[in-house]
Amino acid sequence: MGDVLSGGSDKPRLSERWGGFSRGVRRLIVGLVCCALLAGAAVWVLRADRSAPAAPHKVPYPVHSTRITFVRVFDIDVQKRSFRIELRAVTKHLVLVRRVTQQYEALTVELSPPQAVTVRPGQARRVRVTARVTSCRDLPVRARLPFLDVTLRNARASQDLSFIPGDRYARALTRVFRTVCGPASRS
């Protein structure tokens, strides 16, 4: 008698078991396996979303979160042909006011003191500017819609903002020009 080689147990194999099921049972098993795979994938995706760090809140551009308004003109010095301007800055996000300039060639403007002003969220901050008239001849008799250029910097960007402080600023500037550069000093 010869040796009988056996591959394992005498139980039916998976393919034989599968073939033993009716067509309806096989469809049910395939459907249940697919549902289990989809449910597992959904759980994996949801856990991955929770474990991922939240996207950082983007800080808006400085011009979108900062408001600057004119307060007053003060410290007019006719001898030195200088005066000071006070502005008020309010922001929703931390911002630096780095520079303030203006349109008239005969007028120099700079921050006073000449360093950036830090404006914190929700806290109004005074921004003071010193202005000097360099030539009365080149200044207008009446300031009409004068604007200021302000450089703002925050965590997102550095931007230049041109704004018209309003009619009160125009009237105050006109009075200062007439005081500093009276009719006799148009040189």
What does it look like?
The protein has 187 residues and is an alpha+beta fold. The protein has two domains: 14-51; 62-180, Immunoglobulin-like. The protein has four helices and eight strands. It has helices spanning 14-20, 23-51, 62-65, 167-180; strands at residues 66-77, 82-91, 95-102, 107-111, 117-119, 125-133, 148-153, 158-163. A four-stranded antiparallel β-sheet has the order 1-2-6-4. Strand 7 (148-153) and strand 8 form a beta hairpin. The longest helix is centred in the N-terminal third of the chain and has 29 residues, at 23-51. The N and C termini lie far apart (133 Å). The model has no long low-confidence stretch (mean pLDDT 85).
Kindly provide the radius of gyration, computed on alpha-carbon positions and rounded to a whole number of angstroms. Answer: 38 Å
Specify the number of helices: 4
Strand order of the largest sheet: 1-2-6-4
CATH architecture of the largest domain: Sandwich
Helix percentage range? 25-40%
Please state the structural category: alpha+beta
**Please, what is the oligomeric state?**
single chain
> How would a crystallographer describe the biggest sheet?
4 strands, antiparallel
Average pLDDT, rounded to a whole number, is 85
Distance, first to last CA: 133 Å
Q: How much strand?
A: 25-35%
Break the fold down into its secondary structure elements and pairings.
Blueprint: H1 14-20, H2 23-51, H3 62-65, E1 66-77, E2 82-91, E3 95-102, E4 107-111, E5 117-119, E6 125-133, E7 148-153, E8 158-163, H4 167-180
Antiparallel strand pairs: 1-2, 2-6, 3-5, 3-7, 4-6, 7-8
